[in-house]
Specification:
This protein is of the alpha/beta class. The protein is built from five helices and seven strands, in the order αβαββββαβαβα. The C terminus is likely disordered. This is ArsR family transcriptional regulator. InterPro entries: GlpE_sulfurtransferase (IPR050229), Rhodanese-like_dom (IPR001763), Rhodanese-like_dom_sf (IPR036873).
Amino acid sequence: MNALDYFNARLQATLSPMDYLMSSKKNPETYFLIDVRNGPEKLRSIIIKGSTVIPQQELHTRLDEIPMDKEIIVYCWDVWCNTAAKVAKHLLEKGYTVKELTGGIAAWQEMNFPVSNTLEENNIEGDCGC
């Protein structure tokens, strides 16, 4: 693969946080954003506003929640995490249109883009879940 092929493939498979934010504001019905991070809920409590949380480990039992008629955008922790890439590959094999959000939640937060706190939204306090 030469450099041009590499960059073309990369642009087809990824979407930057800024590009996603602008595109989703113009055409919100086009996209379905999924947080695919694994790990303790407390560590995953900050999510990109408007995303659906489907951890990678639950994906096989929750495919029915993912619309086939939208462009699926998946994200994980950071550039060093490949969970979103694994999920994207799996969804592509199932016939979905998928891109990975570059930089994950870390890049999103670094840019001060809108986030939600799932623990606050679900009125979960402390470690007991009460």
